[in-house]
TrEMBL record:
Keywords: Amino-acid biosynthesis, Branched-chain amino acid biosynthesis, Transferase
Function statement: Catalyzes the conversion of 2 pyruvate molecules into acetolactate in the first common step of the biosynthetic pathway of the branched-amino acids such as leucine, isoleucine, and valine.
Assembly with partners or alone: Dimer of large and small chains.
Reaction(s) catalysed by this chain's protein: 2 pyruvate + H(+) = (2S)-2-acetolactate + CO2
Name by which UniProt lists this protein: Acetolactate synthase small subunit
Enzyme Commission code(s) on record: 2.2.1.6
Annotated ACT domain residues: 25-100
GO annotation terms (biological process): isoleucine biosynthetic process; L-valine biosynthetic process
GO cellular component, one term: cytosol
Pathway named in the protein's UniProt entry: Amino-acid biosynthesis; L-isoleucine biosynthesis; L-isoleucine from 2-oxobutanoate: step 1/4; Amino-acid biosynthesis; L-valine biosynthesis; L-valine from pyruvate: step 1/4
Amino acid sequence: MNRPVQPPASAYFIEAEKEPVEARTLALIVDNEPGVLARVIGLFSGRGYNIESLTVSETEHEKHLSRITVVTRGTRHIIEQIKSQLDRIVPVHRVVDLTRQAGDDGETGPIERELAIVKVAGEGDQRMEALRLADVFRAKVVDSSIDHFVFELTGRPSKLDKFIAIMKPLGLVEVCRTGVAALTRGADPM
């Protein structure tokens, strides 16, 4: 009985395991000085990493420190590379992956909020439906006329995504979003 000959096992034929790509929220404490944001953004663009959300604000005026919150996507290995490279930029004091932080209450992940301002134009039944749904989502009317509403909505990015998707068939005209602001859970600082 002849058996087919199997080729010898080789590392070249072993398919590498594919890590899942996931969204990660990174917080950076940096010196509040000209050019720092450009250096951080340059690191992402120079290596082909995408930024899904970016927020920046001074947080400690006396110490001239700002906080940059970046949402990006990548494998665990890519995220570790990004963190390591960010840590080497001189005006960066601290880099924390908020996605992996757990709070005192056992919850995982950061507390994330985003603000959206959404303009919807419509009349009649569509107008009434837009108002009803805005109430369900706890969106606040900040401007209105006979033919449009401007809603203000704060919440997790997924909540804003759902609200915007629901408003599309009702006359969505324009959307402006702030980007994610995030903090770790629990009493300890970042």
